[in-house]
Amino acid sequence: MSEQPSKRVEVVFALPGRCWRENVSVPVDADAQAVAEASGLAMVCREATGRGPAAYGIYGRKINAADVVGDRQRLELYRPLTVDPRERRRRRTEKT
User: I want to staple 36 with a disulfide (CB 3.0 to 4.6 A). Which of 13, 42, 71, 81 is the partner?
Assistant: First the structure.
């Protein structure tokens, strides 16, 4: 019986005031979505925001859910925006 090759990936998800970090071992061909599900943090994101991750990234660079994550990389789960940044700026300028 041969062991399937695997890779180690760190998965992170943050909310204001709280950060989750999990290290997982996944198959070499695992994409970002599969890694997020394997870590359990995709479920944390769904519970905290009401839906799954809005996007994925590796060290601050946005990637697609189908992109393969490399060995020893950090996969970041991005939460959905609650307010459009343009609308937030507009409201802020109206107050001044």
Answer: 42
CA 44/CA 46 separation, integer angstroms: 5
Sheet containing 6-15, strands listed edge to edge, beginning at the edge strand earlier in sequence:
18-27, 6-15, 74-78, 55-58, 61-63
pLDDT per position as a tens digit, 18-41: 999 999 999 999 999 999 999 999
CB distance 46 to 39 below 8 Å: no
Reported pTM: 0.82
Please say whether the dihedral angle defined by the alpha carbons of residues 47, 48, 53 and 56, taken in this order, is positive or negative.
negative
